[in-house]
Amino acid sequence: EVQLVESGGGLVQPGGSLRLSCAASGFTFSSYWMSWVRQAPGKGLEWVANIKQDGSEKYYVDSVKGRFTISRDNAKNSLYLQMNSLRAEDTAVYYCARYLGYCSGGSCYGWFDPWGQGTLVTVSS
Amino acid sequence: VIWMTQSPSLLSASTGDRVTISCRMSQGISSYLAWYQQKPGKAPELLIYAASTLQSGVPSRFSGSGSGTDFTLTISCLQSEDFATYYCQQYYSFPSLTFGGGTKVEIK
Predict the structure, then answer these.
(1) What tens digit of pLDDT does each residue of B9-65 get?
(2) Minimal Cα–Cα distance from A104 to chain B, Å?
(3) Of B43, B92, B101, the CB nearest to A115
(4) Are B31 and B50 in contact (CB under 8 A)?
(5) How far is CA A48 from CA A12, A105, A115, B64, B84, in A?
(6) pLDDT tens for each residue of A72-117
(7) Residue A79: which residues within 8 A CB-CB, separation 6 or more?
């Protein structure tokens, strides 16, 4: 069974840092792009970041560029999100998701499946 | 930037109803669209990708249609377990992936 389990969420003060982890199982982790998607309380979904199979390409939504870093350890079947300079507007449930689709001409067009159960990050003083 | 307009934001329906949810793009995206279902307190689940391809294991009462700028998710005969929030997602403008605002389907 394909499974993604996030951890590392919690309460952090504005300006602080947090590192989220996602443990993958049930599939060949190193063969897939991976993603982080977040959802603020009572709000919709927002894609945060993507990372290529070997970590050589990383993409971010504009609002987190320069503050968040996505990474992976294929030997440990794990995905990470290092979040620095956190703001109140970063408060959300953060989901890890496998990114499926296909690549053509330098772009990788895809969707998210499956998703982890999510981990809540609260940025507040 | 591709703007997505999902409508309605709230839909009241009864078990057995046929319901349709719309997702409209500010520019054409071919068939680069997915649909998700999210139940309260749970992670989203993929229903449809490539606008009309049903994900394995998803009941056939769900269907997707459209291309270009206008897309529709249809539930042919609403079941009790279908009361949830539905999101569309475009992947045409990789790497900028975006979701619609969501449609909550509630019991009438």
Answers:
(1) 999 999 999 999 999 999 999 999 999 999 999 999 999 999 999 999 999 999 999
(2) 11
(3) B43
(4) yes
(5) 19, 23, 14, 26, 23
(6) 999 999 999 999 999 999 999 999 999 998 888 888 899 999 999 9
(7) A21, A22, A24, A34, A36, A51, A70, A71, A72, A96
